[in-house]
Amino acid sequence: MSTDRYTSPLSERYASKEMQYIFSPEMKFKTWRQLWIALAKTERELGLDITEEQIAELEAFQDDINFETAKEREKLVRHDVMSHVYAYGVQCPKAKGIIHLGATSCYVGDNTDIVIMDRALKLVRAKLVNVIDELAKFADTYKSLPTLAFTHFQPAQPTTVGKRATLWLQEFLMDLEDLTYVLGSLKLLGSKGTTGTQASFLELFDGDQQKVDKLDPMIAQKMGFESCYAVSGQTYSRKVDTRVANVLAGIAASAYKMSNDIRLLQHLKEVEEPFEKNQIGSSAMAYKRNPMRSERIGSLARYVMVDALNPAITSATQWFERTLDDSANKRLSIPEAFLATDGILDLCLNVVDGLVVYDKVITKRLMAELPFMATENIMMDAVKKGGDRQELHEKIRKLSMEAGARVKQEGKENNLLELIAADPSFQLSLEELNEAMQPSKYVGCAPEQVAQFLERVVAPVLTEHKELLGMKADIHV
C-alpha cells in the first residue's frame, strides 16, 4: 500500500481481487493483444498478405507485455494505443507491420471495454445469485415466525420474518432479470474505422464489400461474442454504458433497501448482522454493536446510484460520430461502479449468511401490540355471542384509545384485553381473549406465500444458475 499518494478505497478496502483484476492494466492490455491477433487472423483468412509466421509471433508474446517500453514510448508520442502498438512491434519484429492494420484506436479501446464489462457483469451475476440463494435459505428458515409488520414505521398487521425477506429477494430477482438482459445484449464494436464507415477496410480489400461484411462477425466469433453492433460512429454508442450502469444502480438500490431494514431491525434488537468476537462497535461506548456492514452497504450504494448519472450524461453529450470528452469520465465511472457494486454484494452475502434473529424479542414486541391487531377478530367473536356490531365497534375504539394512552403516557403494559373482559357487552372472558392471542392466527397467508415464492419463483432461478453457487464473501475491514 502506498502511503505518500492517494489510493482508491474501492481497491484498498471494498472490492474483491477478482473484480480488481478485471479492471487492471494487465487485463486491459492482454485483451488489446487478443484483439490485434483476432484482427490479423481475420484479415489473413480474408486474403490479406499476412503470414502464419507473423501470427505465431504475435501469439507468442500475447501475454508477455513489455509495460516499461510502452510507458517510455507514451511519454514521447502521448498516445496510449500507438505506444502499445510500438511495444508489441519491438517484441514481434516480423509482425510489426501488420499490427493494428486498418484499425483505429477504438478498435482496441472500445472492444476491450465491452469484453471487460461482459466479464465484470458475469462476476456480479455470480455474486448476486449467491445473495439470492442465502436470502432464500433465510426466508425458508423463518417463513413461519410471526413478527410485527410496519407501515410508515408504525405497527401494522403482523407478517413473518421470512415473508419480509422475500420482499428483499424479489427486488434482487428483478435486478438479476435486468442484468441477464443487458449481459445478453452486449455486442462488440468490431472494426468500424474512424467514423464507422469501414472505409479503411474497404480500401484494404480493394473494394470487396463481401469481405468487409465478413470482417466483424469473424472477429466477434474469435473474441467469444455472437455479433457486433450493426452501426456505429467511431465508438459504440455510450448508451451501452448507461444501460450497464443502470443495472448496477438497481442492484445498489435493492441492497440499500435491505440494509436499511436490517439497520432499523437491529435498533429494535430483533435481528443483528454478524459481529465478530474482537470487533469494536464504538471507540467511546464499549457496549455498542453497530450495524457497520449494513451502513457500508448503504454508503457504497449511494455512490453507485449517483454514479449512474455519469454514463447517461456522457451518452447524451456525444457529438456526431464521437468526441473525446467521454474518455476521462468513462475511465472513472464504469470501473468504480463495478468495484463498488462488487463490494456491496460481498457485504450483502456476508450479512445475510450470518444474520442473527432474536425470536423472543420479536415475539415480545408483537405481543405488546397484538391486542390492537386482534380487535376485529374479538369484535366478530362478540357478535357471534349476540352483540351489536356497531355498538361493539364504538366501545372497542374507545377502549383501544384508553389502553393506548396507558402505554404511551404512563409507560405501562397494554391492558386492552383486561378492559374488554371487564365490559359485559363483549361476553368474553380474559381466558377466551388470551386464547385468541396466538400470533400465527394473524399472519394471513405469509408462510404459504413464502413457500410458494421459493418453490415457483426462486428455485428455478437457482437451478438455472447452480454452477455459480457456493461463493463466500471475504470482507477486508
Rg from Cα: 31 Å
Strand content: under 5%
Strand order of the largest sheet: 1-2
**How would you spell out the order of helices and strands?**
HHHHHHHEEHHHHEHHHEHHHHHH
Overall pLDDT confidence: 94
Please mark out the parts with pLDDT under 50 across 5 or more consecutive residues, or reply none: 282-287
Specify the biggest β-sheet.
2 strands, antiparallel
Secondary-structure-based class equals mainly alpha
Can you tell me the overall shape? elongated
Helical content (DSSP H or I, runs of 4+):
55-70%
How far apart, in Å, are the first and last alpha carbons? 15 Å
Total number of helical segments? 20
The total strand number stands at 4
Describe the structure.
The protein is mainly alpha-helical and 477 residues long. The protein has 20 helices and 4 strands. It has helices at 9-14, 17-22, 25-45, 52-60, 67-77, 80-91, 105-141, 161-185, 199-204, 209-222, 239-267, 292-307, 309-316, 327-353, 359-373, 375-384, 389-410, 416-422, 430-435, 446-464; strands at 146-151, 154-160, 271-272, 356-357. Strands 1-2 form a two-stranded antiparallel ribbon. The chain has a two-stranded antiparallel ribbon with strand order 3-4. A hairpin with a 2-residue loop joins strand 1 (146-151) and strand 2. Helix 8 runs antiparallel to helix 11 (239-267) and helix 8 runs parallel beside helix 20. The longest helix has 37 residues, at 105-141. The two termini are 15 Å apart. The relative contact order is 0.12. Mean pLDDT is 94; it is low at 282-287.
